[in-house]
Design goal:
heterodimer, A: about 150 residues, alpha+beta, 3 helices, 6 strands, B: mainly alpha, 434 Repressor (Amino-terminal Domain), 6 helices
Chain lengths: ~150, ~120
């Protein structure tokens, strides 16, 4: 007997694709990202320019970590996955805006899977509650593999 | 009445992309030369907080600060020009050029655009 089928990150929105990776977003994260992309105010346009370059770097460069500093893409925290493992939460950051997710393999490609956005970051610290919710959603995906100890 | 400044997304993209180019370059130098930020700040005569700020999206370093940081890493920044792809589409139609219709119809690659929806 098999249990209920798990959700797959492959069904998430593909927002960026390159020779070394992809970026996919859940519906809620995509809606928040779309607001940035469609925004006509100055900050949204700046955010868009930055996020697109960061995504491009992640997708086109195998050694993306050599050029993306912590101010742009950072491993924030590990969260228990409820099965004895842990989910590493990473964040793309730009202009007080954070996209939380993790790196996993989706459709044979290194993929950043984003599931939560903090669009109104008022302080420098990441939002723990939001990251925990992102971790729970990521741990439930079919492609999820716990972070090696 | 004060007139509101018109925001041109192409100008913003040009400004931000140059900043990001510099930030990527500097971070790449830090990684490849295995220099800590504390060391770099000291070598460049900047505070560590100022150096961190230079890596943020909100940064707007002066060209002199950029030169100073490159110099501290034993490098020199060259300024070169590159045509923006969108501008090329506005050039006069070349003779005997196949596929120009695609360009004229705006089917051109935007410099930093990718996939989408």
């Amino acid at each position: 007997m098999t249990g209920p089928q798990k959700a797959s990150a492959a069904s998430y929105r593909l927002v960026w694709k390159g020779p070394s990776g992809t970026v996919r977003l859940s519906e809620s994260a995509y809606a928040a990202y779309d607001q940035v992309i469609q925004g006509t105010d100055e900050i949204s346009m700046k955010r868009k320019a930055h996020l697109e370059r960061y995504f491009r770097e992640f997708c086109e460069n195998v050694h993306f970590y050599q050029r993306l500093s912590d101010e742009k893409f950072k491993k924030e925290q590990n969260f228990p996955d409820g099965k004895g493992g842990k989910v590493a939460i990473w964040a793309f950051k730009s202009w007080q805006w954070r996209l939380y997710g993790t790196i996993m393999h989706v459709a044979a490609s290194r993929c950043f899977v984003g599931t939560a956005v903090d669009a109104a970051k008022k302080r420098n610290k990441a939002d723990r509650k939001l990251m925990k919710a992102a971790a729970d959603e990521l741990a439930a995906l079919a492609e999820y593999k716990p972070e090696p100890a | 009445m004060r007139q509101e400044k018109k925001i041109d997304p192409a100008v913003i993209a040009a400004e931000e992309n140059l900043l990001i180019d510099f930030q990527f370059l500097l971070q790449e130098l830090i990684s490849s030369k295995n220099v800590s930020r504390t060391e770099l700040a000291e070598l460049a005569g900047l505070s560590k907080a100022r150096l961190s700020q230079i890596f943020s999206a909100e940064a707007n370093p002066t060209v002199k600060t950029m030169a100073r940081l490159a110099h501290a890493m034993g490098e020199r920044i060259d300024i070169s020009r590159k045509k923006e792809e969108k501008l090329e589409a506005r050039q006069p139609r070349p003779r005997h050029s196949f596929g120009w219709d695609d360009v004229a119809n705006d089917n051109v690659t935007i410099l930093y655009g990718n996939v989408a929806a």
